[in-house]
Amino acid sequence: MDKINKLPTTVPLFPLSNFIIFPNTTVPLNIFEPRYIQMIDDSMKSHRMIGMIQPKKSGELKKPDLYEVGCIGKITSFNETEDGRYLIIINGVSRFNIDKEIQTDKLYRSCNVSYDNYQKDLDDKVEKFKLKDLDKIFEDLKNLFEKKGFMVDWSNLKKQDFSNTLNTLSMASPFSLEEKQVLLETKDLITRKLRLEEILKTYTLDEFSNKTIQ
């Protein structure tokens, strides 16, 4: 509970479609829009944290509706390019639920958030599984990635533990934003593994149906 109390309850938001992060995963970001340059400037002056969240396909073009669950990440590396862009690395800390959006004079959006539903994200205990449990997922994903022309270093992925490998696959896979949101909102690893298998099965069935029709 102490760790939750140290997290900010008002979070600047960075909405990105088809982009999710999980706790303990690390991702690079290229920041160039003025509103998000301002967001990073403000964050670097305070807690160095930003909330990554997916926008829905509804709402206004410049202010789309947002999914209720995102993940807060801490800026662990910051570099500014000669043309004014920010190259940052963020490390996922905890997922959150949006309580309500707040009105500010900033260019970016901010929300009050709660971490109560994802307290285990801050738990040091790791769920124990074997990478062998991911063999079927690896096989199906390899086929899907090859069909879509994606290049993946599978050997490096298998050097990680079960949790990081499963979360990295969930983040990097060429799924829809709705499918990625389902994976983000699963509360434990075994459920996430099952959801990932279910999603992959739909792609396999679609491929089979297309071949059958032809």
Can you put this structure into words, describing what you see?
It is a single chain. The chain is of the alpha+beta class. The protein has 2 domains: 121 residues, Archaeosine Trna-guanine Transglycosylase, Chain: A, domain 4 (Roll), CATH 2.30.130; 83 residues. The strands form 2 sheets. The protein has a 5-stranded mixed β-barrel with strand order 1-3-6-7-8. The chain has a two-stranded antiparallel sheet with strand order 4-5. Helix 6 packs antiparallel against helix 7. The longest helix has 25 residues. The chain is globular, with a radius of gyration of 18 Å. The protein starts with a helix and ends with a helix. 25% of the residues are buried.
> What is the average per-residue confidence, as pLDDT, rounded to a whole number?
86
* Biggest sheet strand line-up: 1-3-6-7-8
As for the CATH topology of the largest domain, it is Archaeosine Trna-guanine Transglycosylase, Chain: A, domain 4
List how many beta strands DSSP finds: 8
Name the helicity range.
25-40%
Oligomer state equals single chain
Total of domains: 2
CATH-level-2 architecture of the largest domain: Roll
- Output the CATH homologous superfamily of the largest domain: LON domain-like
How many helices? The count is 7
The sequence of SSEs as H and E is: HEEHEEEEEEHHHHH
Shape estimate = globular
Structural class assignment: alpha+beta
Gyration radius, in Å:
18 Å
Largest sheet: 5 strands, mixed, barrel
How much of the residues is beta strand, in percent?
Answer: 25-35%
Uncertain parts: 208-214
Distance between the ends: 57 Å
